[in-house]
Amino acid sequence: MVQNHVAAQKQPVGVKQIVTIRLDVDMLEWFKAAGPGYQTRINQVLREHMDAQRAAQAGN
Q1: For the chain, what is the mean pLDDT?
Q2: Where in the chain are the domains?
Q3: The whole model's pTM is what?
């Protein structure tokens, strides 16, 4: 599992993979209501959360 984490860290930002994910309807509607680019915004929120978690783990 650590190897997968390290491999994931080496992936260049911007490389995308098509996935299927189930989201709560209200959350998806909220992102879509902001207009085009909702998938990019969801990705940005997830990346910010991931970065914050990594920073918190590095501080432990």
Answers
A1: 88
A2: 25-60
A3: 0.73
